[in-house]
Design brief:
The complex is a heterodimer of chains A (188) and B (138). By secondary structure, chain A is mainly α. Chain A is built from eight helices and no strands. The longest helix of chain A is centred in the last third of the chain and has 29 residues, at 155-183. Chain B has one domain. The longest helix of chain B is centred in the N-terminal third of the chain and has 20 residues, at 3-22. Chain B is built from six helices and no strands. The two termini of chain B are 34 Å apart. The chains are: A mainly alpha (188), B mainly alpha (138). The interface between A and B is large, with 128 and 116 residues.
Chain lengths: 188, 138
């Protein structure tokens, strides 16, 4: 038995955030906007894109702080059961050199010990860079476009989500199968 | 902003964070499995989230929010380059790291400090976009 919350519980809970934030204060559910607010906190010289009063958006920073706190709480609730995966997918992961899943993310890539390798830093900073750059260029991330944007019937969000998947499929089928074995000490 | 609202936004984030971890939507394995079309789980989460959000938005449109502002849907600008190129770059990062910004924050809270490095990369990417914004086609 596992303790995973099924999709039909967790999906509606996540979706409920969109009307909840609108109802509280006409706020748009969008987490990556906080990355911009963090840049706007820089007190020195900064691009025009970051020259605005980030304090006016502090509700979203509180929401982000809640995400961290929620992760902390759930980290203790989380029973640490193995993630039950599709057997074919699991075989691929193991062929790349990952051990059987024991936790929510692979320790080979994300345990603090993995940070001893420069390759892990390159992987995390490079992946993060694409996420941050792409989210602002594209005007949103999973929360702003895929959930909130589609729920508000925004055609631009549909285009963005289609291309999220184009990029994601390229990564998952071409890049990740090469980069994971490389991160674990093999060649590319 | 009244403290009660600050607290409400914080609690909303907290519930979201707990859900992201407990549903494993924050799991690298789950994201890679989704992109490999290995399971319905993530599609079920995203699909049912959109469905519930859509109904909620329709019910609330035009009403007044608790903080006082009228609830309005802001239409996104219809210039397509940014959604195609920016979207694809975001997707590349999402598939590569197996996490998007929300789950990254929750995983930091759940005790995985390496996600701080991923988050730092996101801030860096955001900053560079801010620098290049005027020369990029939108």
């Amino acid at each position: 038995m596992t303790h995973i919350w099924p999709w039909y519980i967790s999906g509606p809970l996540l979706g409920l955030m969109v009307p909840l934030l609108l109802w509280l204060g006409n706020k748009d559910f969008g987490i990556s906007a906080n990355l911009r607010h963090i840049c706007a906190m820089w007190p020195g010289k900064k691009p025009a894109f970051f020259q605005y009063d980030w304090r006016a958006q502090s509700w979203n920073l509180w929401f982000a702080a809640g995400l961290v706190a929620g992760g902390f709480v759930a980290g203790y609730l989380y029973p640490g059961d193995p993630v039950p995966l599709n057997p074919t997918v699991l075989e691929r992961f193991q062929a790349w050199g990952l051990s059987a899943p024991q936790d929510i993310v692979p320790p080979e890539l994300f345990a603090t010990a993995a940070l001893a390798s420069w390759k892990t830093w390159l992987y995390l900073l490079g992946g993060g860079f694409l996420i941050g750059f792409g989210a602002r260029y594209g005007g949103g991330c999973t929360s702003g476009h895929a959930i909130s944007g589609l729920a508000m019937l925004q055609l631009p969000s549909l285009v963005a989500v289609v291309f999220f998947f184009v990029g994601g499929l390229i990564s998952a089928w071409w890049i990740v199968p090469r980069i994971v074995p490389w991160l674990l000490g093999g060649g590319l | 902003m009244k403290p009660i609202f600050t607290f409400a936004y914080f609690l909303s984030g907290m519930l979201t964070g707990i859900t992201l971890i407990q549903s494993q939507a924050a799991s690298w394995y789950r994201i890679e499995e989704m992109f490999q079309f290995g399971a319905f789980h993530m599609y079920g989460i995203i699909g049912s989230a959109i469905f519930v959000a859509l109904i909620g938005v329709q019910l609330l449109k035009g009403r007044r929010s608790l903080e006082g502002a009228e609830i309005k849907i802001n239409d996104k600008a219809r210039t397509w380059t940014r959604y195609v190129v920016g979207g694809a770059l975001f997707g590349l990062g999402w598939g590569l790291a197996g996490a998007c910004p929300g789950p990254t924050l929750s995983l930091i809270g759940a005790g995985w400090p390496a996600f701080l490095v991923l988050f730092a990369g996101m801030i860096l990417g955001t900053w560079v976009y801010g620098v290049l914004r005027d020369v990029l086609p939108h």
